[in-house]
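for the writeup, i need someone to sanity check this before i put it in the appendix. the sequnce is what the collaborator sent (i think, or maybe the updated version? ugh). structure was predicted straight from it, no edits. if anything looks off just tell me and ill rerun, i have time this weekend
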Amino acid sequence: MPSPSPDTPTADSPVPLLRMAGITKSFPGVRALSGVDLTVVGGEVHCLLGQNGAGKSTLIKVLAGAHQPDSGEIVWQGRPARLKSPIDAMRLGVATIYQELDLVEHLSVAENVGLGHEPTRAGFLVRTGVARRRAASLLHRLGHDEIDPAVPVAELSSAQRQIVSMARALSRDARLIVMDEPSAALDPDEVSNLFRVVRTLTGDGVAVVYISHRLEEIRTIGDRVTVLKDGRSVADALPARSTPTRDIVTLMTGRSVERVFPSSRTAGPVDSGAPHVLKVEGLGRTGEFEPLDLEVGAGEIVGLAGLVGSGRSEILETVYGARRPTSGRVLVDGREVRPGNVRAAVRAGIGLAPEERKAQALLMLEPVTRNVSLSTLGRFSRLGWIDRSAERVSARRATRDLALRPDSPETLVRNLSGGNQQKAVLARWLLRGCRVLLLDEPTRGVDIGARVELYALIRRLADDGLAVLVVSSEIPEVLGLADRVLVLREGHVVHRAPAGDLDEHRVLDLVLEGNHAS
């Protein structure tokens, strides 16, 4: 008796909603996909993982009808399908929500939800009341009655815009929704709410393909996982919750998880008798964090661990002078830094890589050179003119030292990957010759492969003599990078210890149940 085809239903496996088999796609000089398989069933969250360049974006563009595959097969509910355009994909029931949401900000929520299929009278008069009622019904289905269908999208938060994009997908009767890094701009409470909405969708039978760099999210929201590497699917439909993280990391990177973080203090132990590069004495801001003391020596990485609202980022911004303290002082190499003054902090040798690098650190429409030289322009100024040649040479030397790719000083920063954008920020402070490096969420929006590279780079910078103070919402990252860790809870330091004396469970216990005993 012949065996059933992959799309023949059995008692244990219903017909998949989507099956992509052997998908290949090449561009001039680049083979983006080399035989990718993806099978998605209705009502599941199927996570798609891979480093930048693994082929995720190309694959979802094939699924969205934006790219035509060179070979391979797409099967929808057991029948072959050809997606010649995004319209074909939408008619089939596929909706894609990209990381950069394609909402029209000056239009209302209802207008965005119904864009392209507005209810009309006489074929051309939009029935505004009907459109708003339809949008309200979809928002209610998603559990967001607080979003007013009449308000412009420009007035909504990032989380609310995600919901509007989902409502628009549902307005076209989407059976499968692709979500590309949906949590990248959301805080933890908003991520929890996003997960609730996703589970509402899958409970109604809608399938979700979920793309994220955050492996901890996969454990929470995912049902199955497909991993891409170098344009190939190296694992298809792994169980999301029971597959060990080390196995997923190895599949994505080709490295074992033990090699993700560099060894601490590769240049030897910090001299405990040497003066600290950064010293914070009684620094506090009323309502944000209580007065604290901390020191960071040359060649040392100190981590701040805690939940959002614990005061982590506020401490970094106060040390940097972006916030004025209500008490205490900051010293660099024994010299007090003028409080609440960014220029004074930079002159003292303090550099900050902020959490929102695109909005707070980078000029996205400017080239790499301009971004790297931003804090040292005076060095290249001659009689009011900038010596562009000297600026370019110095910036290129700094970026090459960090292996920024592509190796072109004229590349626009917006065209760099997340990891290379972060390198551009670090190169700025290296060119400045900073002594203290403050890192706030240094790997946010960066894939696991680029993270490994950034971790090694941060360790190397410390070994070269920088004092590094790092904040991350990912506890394993703090523990893996830092030599010492301060655990924060509600603005208080509740524990101090060498990183090797802590594990993730212990830190979580401290941030959730801390007794303010340092």
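The CA atoms of residues 116 and 230 lie 36 Å apart. The two ends are 70 Å apart (CA to CA).
thx in advance!!
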